[in-house]
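User: Okay, second chain of the day. Same drill as before: sequence in, structure tokens out.
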Amino acid sequence: MLGRPKTAEEYVDLVDQALFEIEDLRAAAEYDMESMGAATEFLEELERDVRALRASMADGTYQFGKEDLRFVNVVSKQDERILPFKRLLLKINETHRKGLDVD
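Assistant: Same drill. Structure tokens below.
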């Protein structure tokens, strides 16, 4: 995906995809603690923040905003080798800040 999502459904799909990636990374980190142990340190916070975002979308309290989402501080400190879906999370934040890419 190049631009921001065009619909709310596409935006929710990005968040759902991020949750899937977080769970997948957690499973990989638990399987291979030696090489992936660093990932587990921030995954709990990241997962909590993304789940809270998804819950607000589900219950109707979500609002686009001018500030970064809570998880951006954690994400920006990670290397893409540790967090291979970093760009996905940054795309979610960009959409949060700029809104949907409607014509």
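Residues 8-98 form one domain.

User: Thanks, on to the next one.
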